[in-house]
Structure formats: C-alpha cells, structure tokens
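Consider the following assembly input.
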Amino acid sequence: MSSVAAYIDALLAGAPGDLYVDGVWRPASSGDRFVVSDPATGQPICEVADGGTADGSAALDAADRAQEAWAAVPARERSDLLMAAFHLLHENADAFARLITAEMGKSLAEARGEVTYGAEFLRWFAEEAVRVDGRSGVLPSGRLRMLVDQRPVGPCLLITPWNFPLAMATRKIGPALAAGCTAVVKPAELTPLTTLALTKVLEEAGVPAGVVNVVTTADPAAATGHLLADPRLRKLSFTGSTPVGKRLLAAAAEGVLRCSMELGGSAPFIVFEDADLDEAVAGAIAAKTRNIGEACTAANRFLVHESVQEPFVERFAAAMGELVVGSGTAHDTDLGPLIDERSRERVHALVTDAVAQGARAVVGGNLPDGPGHFYPATVLDGVAPDARVVTEEIFGPVAPVQTFADEDEAVRLANSTPYGLVGYVYTRDLDRTLRFVPRLQLGMVGVNTGVVSDPAAPFGGVKESGLGREGGREGIAEYLEHQYVGIVR
Ligand code: NAD
C-alpha cells in the first residue's frame, strides 16, 4: 500500500491530523485539536490540529523563506513535480474517494469524479508552467527597448470551501506552484482531511519544504486574519460564500493584495419552448443534483417558457423523484447527506417559506428523520418571485420553477440577482443562442448542457460572484505579475 493510502486509512481509522509547516508535520502550537465528523452519521472521524495565530505566522514565515528559491526552480522542474503529484493522486484515487465521501458526504461515484476533476488541475497547470512567456520590442518613441517579463506574485494565502475539498485545493495550488509562488493553504474546517492527504501527495511528489504549508483551524479569522495585513503576503485566493469573501476583500485592501475571489452563485436554468425537453430534464438533473446541490454552479432557479412548463415540470419531477437518497458509501446513492444540520434546516426553511407563499411541492419537500443530514430531491412549482428560495443560494437538492413569456422577461429574471457566476440555456435555435447569451450577466454559460466546469476553461463569475478566473489559460495569470524593463538603446 502506498504511503498516501496508508495515511488516508489512518485518518479514517481515527488517527489525528497535523499541520504541515516548512515540510514538517506537527500539532498546533496550542496543542488543541477539533473534531471532523461524517455528515451521513454525525459520528466523529478523527481530530485535526486547531491552528492559531502563531501557526498562521509560522506558515507564512516558511512560505516567505521558500519563495525566492522556488521561483528560481526551472519551470520544467516545477512542471514535473506537479505531474508527479497528478499521477500519485490517480494511483490513490480510491482512497481519496473514500476520504472525500467520509468527510463531505457525496456518493463514492461523485467523489471519484472529483478526484479525476481535481487531479486534472495538477496536470493542466503542469502543462501551463512551461508556457509562461514575455515579450520584447522597441517603444514607438524609439528611446527604449522594452522587455516584459512575467514574475510570480509571491506568497499566497489559499482559502478553500468544504464542498469540493480536493478540486478547490488543486485549482489554487496547481497554478500557484506552476507560476513559482509559495502558499499557505487553509482548508474549510468541515473538510480538512482531503487537503491533508493532498499535502501528503505533494510531499511524496517532492515539492520542497516551505512551498506548500497547511494550517487547519476551527477559527479561520484567528489563524489567518493577521496574514492579510502582513506585507510578505502578496495574494489572496478565496473560494467560499459572498459575505465572507466581501469581508476578506475589504481586509485584503490593507495590504493591496492581488485577489481572486470565487464566490456564491444563483444559476438560472432557462428552458425555451423549442428545447429538447428530454435533454433539458437530463441537464436539469445534472445541474441541480451534482454534489447534492451543494455547488456554486448548481441551478438555483428554473426559468421555463410558459408553453412548456407543464411537460417540463412533470418529467423533471418524475426524474427527481427517482433519485436515491442515502449514505455516500452505498452503491446506489444519488444524493448523499447535506454537510451539516444547520444547512439542512436552512434548506428546509427555504422550502417552507416558498410553500407558504403559494408554491406547490411536486415532489419532495419533507424533512426526513435522522440520523444524518439528508434532504430529498424537491421540485417546487409556481414559486413567487420574491420567495427566499429564488433570492438566496439554496445549496441543496431543491429546484424552484418559475415561468417567462419571452426572451426579454427571461433576461430580466436571469439577471435579477446580485450573482453572476453561471447559467444554463436550453434551446435548439442557434440565432437565439447567439442573440440571447450575450445579454446574460454571467461569467459562464452552458448551452444545452448542465455542466460546464473543466480545468481547461476559465471558471469564474461577474458581479458578486467574484473576481478573476481559475483554470484555463487565464488561471495561471492570476499568480503572475508583469515586470516591464526599459533599456536605453
Ligand atoms: P464559507 O464562506 O463559509 O467558507 C469558505 C472558507 O472561508 C472556509 O475555509 C472557511 O473556513 C473560510 N473562512 C470563513 N471565515 C473566514 C475568515 N474570517 N477568515 C479566513 N477564512 C475564513 O463558504 P463555505 O460554506 O465553505 O462554501 C460554500 C460557499 O462557497 C457557497 O457560497 C458557494 O457558492 C461557494 N463556492 C464558490 C465556488 C466558486 O468557484 N465560485 C466554488 C465552490 C463554492
């Protein structure tokens, strides 16, 4: 058994997780630990180090010390290290899937999908590492020769959410390391174990001490808040909720940090009257129930042309009603548990509020008995325009349906939130696609598909869904600064 798989098995058997600072695994300086639980049972899995202010500082000390040497490592060598990590992740895919399911709840099949998706960011950025280039020329005045070089931004703070504990980490660590930046990584307190196992992979692949430092904590503000004002930190990359993102953005202004913010979403899923309804239903299931609906890309509002509302709702509700709710470890599970009880109560409150305002639960909508934080696939028809279920991010397997009469109304409804991450459009009319899609205030649009995420494409939103892009050719640019050198001729 590989040392990575053995490490994962030990965590799953209850061994404690440590911090990783300057190439050393160690407890928090306070000695404190916090519990990580399985959302399907509510039972503890193990405890991990509860890093505090001193641990955050030690991690930045290490990242800062390692920065210059790491930036000087030839791009080909940095690329080879990332590629080695990509292969190691694949070799340990089953163990990673078990760990993701245990701490996050998604089914083993979805967890395996996340391993493939997450590993792909390491391969993609291994390939991008050797394509960072510059340019040269003579200024139009003729006075100077211009050299434009790209340099790593410097030490980064990478903060990740709980919903894709592997992929959100590789989507940041991959481009940071490829660009020559060192990092302090702070995983979500609900799912820190996958990041620790990924760190084992990076260590085994040969990433030098100090390049990646990981601080697990139950108090993120205490462990990392002071780093945002530390002049050695040069960048913040955050994926999480919009309210927390706004607070961190304000704090990052203190040090004028480069910021990449991947925040919340409220994706419209738009079905025109000419759509292939079977394909639209399949896409709706994918866009709504991927990751138990706990995805920033999850369809949050189903906007259906009034002429096809009835058949769409009927077929969609039938398909949702067939989904199997259960523990992620059961072989037939489609929908694992929600991440915690607070999330489940919030999702149910959104459903209750919509029903109180006149919506009809065509399928689902009931709160099952415990244990575990399960919620059934739910379709709500006739949802009021200001019901909370359409104005807030649901983050659960609940699908509110509203209707529209024409393209103008669809645009108005689609753009009516502060978010602008992604949307989905089902139509067979190419003219309509080309006319309609540019009117959507969205960073990403899927046409006749319910899934757009891919490591080779620029992922990110507009409006309050964020700043910057992850993945694609754009992803590495977030970790690079231009340096212009003017040389007298
Ligand atoms: P969250 O904002 O509660 O937490 C995200 C991360 O921020 C966690 O690691 C948390 O510990 C940390 N954090 C919280 N307060 C902090 C502080 N004061 N200082 C430093 N770190 C702090 O979000 P979540 O509940 O973990 O994730 C769900 C949210 O993430 C949803 O809104 C979802 O849409 C969003 N998300 C967005 C994307 C995207 O790419 N746009 C991807 C996945 C998730």
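The mean pLDDT is 97. Ask yourself how this observation constrains the way the partners meet.
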